[in-house]
Amino acid sequence: FGIATDESFVITTTNRKEITEDNFSELVQDGVTLYLLQSVDQMLLLATKERIDFLPHYDTLVKSGMYEYYASEGQNPLPFALAELIDNSLSATSRNSGIRSIQIQLLFDDSQGKPAVAVIDNGRGMTSKQLNNWAVYRLSKFTRQGDFESDHSGYVRPLPVPRSLNSDISYFGVGGKQAVFFVGQSARMISKPADSQDVHELVLSKEDF
């Protein structure tokens, strides 16, 4: 890599976790993306791209009938789709020490691109790994264990209170994706973890699929 013998460097994951002798076998696996940096908090010189590959979760087959839950409500499905889209925001802002801000914007200005629904919050943000796992269809937040770093870390199902307050809307790990493609043709998630300077962006597109 052209590193001088007297120059120090670190190797990190995309979540800026430094690779050491102790955690090497845990963090370095086939297909993982690594950064070679001068320091853990070094600013990236260029944006990096990472392709997400995964096998569908088995719930895709065994629970696919849940697709009908919109229709089974016997009501206009759009409110339920919007509720799914703010589920991540409810979870992300649940530990805020100050004001929880969640905005839903409906964008119809043709000069700014195609029509879109934007959900914006001031939550803790997601790492690249958490965004990766959000993209995995049918990976429930209640079964994200082992190699899967959840965006609901330490999540415990709360006491029976209105779901609009407890971020328990999406049970099966599919609601957000299903809602996206019910409303439109693509999804773009942009997130900056609270303890990192990196901004991560995930794009799911029907055209790409």
TrEMBL record:
Q: Which organism is it from?
A: Ibidorhyncha struthersii
Identify the gene encoding this protein: Smchd1
State what protein this is by name: SMHD1 protein
Q: Which SUPFAM superfamilies match?
A: ATPase domain of HSP90 chaperone/DNA topoisomerase II/histidine kinase
Q: Which Pfam families match?
A: HATPase_c_3
Its GO biological process annotations read: double-strand break repair
